[in-house]
Amino acid sequence: MSDLALDPRTTALVVIDLQRGITSMPTKPHAPDVVVANAGRLARAFRERGMPVFLVRVLRSPDTALQPVADESMPVRPDLPSDWGEIVPELGPVPSDIVITKRQWGAFTGTELELRLRRGGRRTIVLAGIATSYGVESTARFAYELGFEQVFAEDAISDRSAEAHEAAIKFVLRRLGRVRPTETILGALGPKP
């Protein structure tokens, strides 16, 4: 028996940056196709139960990118392919999904994500996406400070290196919520209506 129970009336799925430009790069410990497949399973299960699915994508340009002085700045590439920001077709979007476009790492800064979650009565979010130590962790830190309960689909999250993924899981995400495999999360949703 699982220690996880999710109320369909107060839970939403938030999928971070599963878009063409990001899923085309290698990730570890889970390959992008594994992350997309598991996130897709979650999205289908949420939709079947009438639960909201938020598909978050990042679009950056030189005029919206933060450029603080740092030892290793994030590169801003103005020459990205035109489909770089498109959500992967395995995830949709379908008409009931809510697509959130962000300009920074986290999905709350400068977006309507918090407003949409709160107006929908959502207190718990299930997070999936790439990269664990950037978009997922940044979103999770804000969600924690905003008081949301969180569940992280460990096998629907990955990073550029296994070390970064494992460090984020071990030292950050386990302190912000519950880390569970996709199968456990699916079981916690209960039977289809």
Runs with pLDDT <50, length 5+?
none
N- and C-termini, Cα separation:
21 Å
Helix content: 25-40%
Largest sheet: 6 strands, parallel
Helix count, per DSSP?
6
Rounded to the nearest angstrom, the radius of gyration is: 16 Å
Please count the beta strands (DSSP E, at least 2 residues each).
Answer: 6
Following the backbone from N to C, one meets helices and strands in this order, namely EHHEEHEHEHEH
In percent terms, what proportion of residues is strand? 15-25%
Order of strands, widest sheet: 3-2-1-4-5-6
Structural class: alpha/beta
What spatial form do the alpha-carbon principal axes imply? globular
Mean pLDDT: 92
Explain what this protein looks like in three dimensions.
The protein has helices at residues 20-23, 32-48, 113-119, 132-145, 162-176, 182-188; strands at 11-16, 53-58, 98-102, 124-130, 149-158, 178-180. Strands 3-2-1-4-5-6 form a 6-stranded parallel beta sheet. The protein is α/β, with parallel strands linked by helices. The longest helix is centred in the first third of the chain and has 17 residues, at 32-48. Strand 5, helix 5 (162-176) and strand 6 form a beta-alpha-beta unit. It is globular, with a radius of gyration of 16 Å. Helix 4 (132-145) runs parallel beside helix 5.
Q: Could you list some keywords that capture this structure?
A:
193 residues; alpha/beta; 6 strands; 6 helices; six-stranded parallel β-sheet
